[in-house]
Task: structure prediction
Amino acid sequence: MELLFAAVFGLGVFGVFAGIRMYRADARLPRDLAVALEVGATRTGAVGSLIDRMGMRYAPLVLRLMGPRRVARYRRRIDLAGNPDGLTIDRYAARRAVYGALGGVGFLVMVMRDQYLAALLLLGFGAFWTEVGLWSAIRIRKDVIERTLPDFLDVLAVVVSAGLGFRQALERVAVRYEGPWADELRITLRQMDLGMSRRQAFAELRRRNDSEPVAMFVTALQQGEELGAPIVDTLVALAKDMRRTDAQNARRRAARAVPKATLMITTFMVPATMLLLGAGLLLGSGVDFGTITGN
Result:
C-alpha cells in the first residue's frame, strides 16, 4: 500500500513539473490560432507526456462532464497560463482523468484500511493536483509579463522615435525579447498578418492576459490612435505610470509583511531564545539535578 501511495505521489510530481515548463525562446506558433493560441506546441492536440497518453482516450468524457461553461472557463485559464508546454483543453482533461482515477482508487483503498487522513489527502490530490500546475503557471507568467512590460515600453519608444513605424518597431523589439511577453507580441503580429485589424488584435492580447499593466498598455494605444496623440509620449508616460504603480505595490507588500514577521518572531523565536537562555543558565549554574529530583 505504501508502494501505491508512492506511485501516486511520484506521478503527480512528474505531471506538475512536466506541465509547467515555461516559455521556450524558440517556441513556434501553432497552425490553428482560432482553436487555441498554444505557444510552445508543435501542433494542436499533440500528446507528449506519459500522463497525457494515459488519459487522452478519456478526455472527451471529462469534457462532457465538465459542460460547455466550465470548458470555456478552463480554456481561458489555459490561455492565461500561456499554454505551458503546449497545454490544450484536451490535455488538461486527460490529466484530470488520470489524477482523478489515481486519487479515487487511493481514497477507496485507504478507507478500507481505516486510514482516513491519507484517504482525504488522496481525494484532494485527485481533485486539485491538476489545478496546482495551472495556477502556478498563471501566477508565474503574470509576474514575468508585469516585470518585462515597462522596460519593453521604453525600448519601443526609443525605436519609434528613431523613425520606424509602430508595426515595424514592434516587430524589431519583439525579436530581441524572450519569454511570455515576446510570445504574446508574436501572436498579435501573426494575427495582424492573417488580416485581423490592429485594434482587434490588441483587444485579443488584453483578453488573453489578466493583467492590469497589459490592459493599460492596450487602452493607451487605442486611445492614442483615436485621439491622434504621439505614440512615443504615450509609451514613455505609460512606462512611468507602471513603474510608479509597481513601487506602490512593493511598499504595500512590505507593509503587510512587517506584521507577519513580527508575529513569527514573537510566536517562535522569542520563546525559543528564552528556553535556550534558561537552559544555558541552569546548566552553567552547577546545580545538581539529582538532588532536586530525588535520584
Observations:
- Residues 112 and 277 are 49 Å apart (CA to CA).
